[in-house]
Amino acid sequence: MGIKTSLPPLELATYALVLVGALSYAAIELFETSRDNMNRKTFKESVKPGWHYIGRKMDVADFEWVMWFKTFRNVIIFALSGHVLFAKICSMTAPQHRSWMYALYGVFAVLTIMGSHYVLLLLAHCLGLYMVSLFKQPWLCFTVGLTSLASFKLEPANVWQNEFVKETFDLQDVLFYGGSGFTIFRCMSFALENCARPDGNYSFLDLFKYNFYLPFFFFGPIMTFDKFHAQVSQLEPVRREREMWQIRMQAGLSLAAIVVVDVFFHFFYILTIPNDLKFTNSLSDWTLAVLAYFNLVYDWVKAAVMFGVVNTVARLDHLDPPQAPKCITALYVFAETHFDRGINDWLCKYVYDAIGEEHQSVGPELVASLATFAITTLWLGPHHIVYLWSALNCFGLNFELWVQKLAEWGPVAQVESSLSKQMSRRARALFGAANFWCIIIYNLMSLNSLKFMELVIRRLLFTGFPQSTLVILFVTYCGVQLIKERERLQALEEEKEAAKKKAA
User: Fold this and answer.
1) In b/e form, how buried is each residue of 347-384, taking b as 16+ CB within 10 angstroms?
2) Which terminal residue of the chain has fewer beta carbons within 10 Å of its beta carbon, N or C?
3) pLDDT tens for residues 194-241?
């Protein structure tokens, strides 16, 4: 996409100035809107008293953030701290048995928190998929695995299973579907890797150790079985140079991000404002645009923090877990858009890449993306918002390939070849800017609401056309050019490193 082509420094500086100025102006408007309306009647349920020494109310509209870092904070800290302490003692006394120690602590913690009925239910699903994996038929593993996943998402099977564990623990609504959904994905990964193993089979105990590793159990991320098994089976794991320093830095950044987000919610009510559509419609186009953008940025920060905390614990256990998703600010193509890198890696390995191969043919790409989003829809659960979200993102992913093929088509390719490389990069950045807003709009419905998405579309594309539409698109274009420049510099650094290694 023209990444290797550089632009004049003055042009890039202009883009940076425009972007910073526009974001600052819109952010100030959003801050003033939040400040002047903190006592608004419709905000009463989700804007509560915050930190006393800040002296402002706080946006508490996100249930998931409040759950992780307020309601169940002490439970999570206690469980993960116990795991760290237990793992440290084990690594000092019997490192060759550490995988067993992780599993025993994990199943004990799940048993304590969730109850015996829940553990028995999950063991039944694990045993079923293990038995299926012995037939070495991937299609059968997919069929049984997706059926098990559907049993947790569709009635009446989900009701029966829910009632089976109904009164055994207090946090059922929060933890039941998280733990069970991730368990099925882990079991399917185990089954598919067992099918791919040329000689013999993995044991059920390998699946047991894989599934009940506590840091990943309830909320992920998912490590595919082959990676987890290889890393946890190392008899004498060795730290890489400066690895402990990196782990401390990651832990510090996660803690700092938690504080920053809490402080941010005292000044910007980005989650509460969209709940009052009448009030939201009174905002300027600029404020509405940055409100939509901040909603996606916040969701990325939340995912980065949650995975950062869990990954810190996993890295202490000598594992290399999936990293946080790529920042939404640095995204302008659907192919790189995801909010859970573990699920994304799982889907890419077993579905998307397996069917789509090189992702250069329209037909296989369409089939691969349809299969991928069908499984994603089942994972998220049946709901009209999920159906629409999957359809739009599947279309966006395929549309990118169609546009790429169109750009390679004779007449269009000739037109582009007549342009300079810099003009080609500018033209492609315009497409990237439009794509960036498609990514934001398509994901707003799942992160906020369908009505808020409709409002953003109406205001930015119709009511605000042409002035607001074109100005916002130009500001986005400036951001895309800066992203491309960063990618160009990173690519150059990687080429230099590769050249040095080759010369050595």
Assistant:
1) bbbbbbeebbeebeeeeebbebbebbbebbbbbbbeee
2) C
3) 999 988 899 999 999 999 999 999 887 899 999 999 999 887 777 788
Contact indicator for 56, 38 with CB cutoff of 8 Å: yes
d(CA 482, CA 476): 10
Q: What gap in Å lies between CA 1 and CA 429, rounded to an integer? A: 8
Mean pLDDT for the stretch of residues 183-200? 94
Instruction: Give the contacts of 261 (CB within 8 A, at least 6 positions apart).
Output: 65, 298, 301, 302, 305
pLDDT at 24: 93
- The per-residue pLDDT for range 78-89, each reduced to its tens digit, is 888 888 888 888
Task: Write the pLDDT tens digit of every residue in 453-467.
Answer: 999 999 999 998 899
C-alpha to C-alpha distance for 425 and 411, rounded to whole angstroms: 18
Can you tell me the distance from the alpha carbon of 311 to that of 251, in angstroms, rounded to the nearest whole number?
9
The Cα–Cα gap between 253 and 263 comes to 15
Confidence of residue 420 (pLDDT cuts 50, 70, 90): confident
Q: DSSP letter string over 6-60?
A: ---HHHHHHHHHHHHHHHHHHHHHHHHHHHHTTT-GGGTTTEEE--TTTTSEEE-
Neighbours of 217 (CB within 10 A): 24
Q: Do 373 and 390 meet the contact criterion of CB atoms below 8 Å apart?
A: yes
Alpha-carbon distance of 69 to 65, in angstroms, equals 6
* Rama region for 55: left / alpha / beta (φ>0; ψ in -120 to 50; rest): left
Contact 103, 216 (CB under 8 A): no
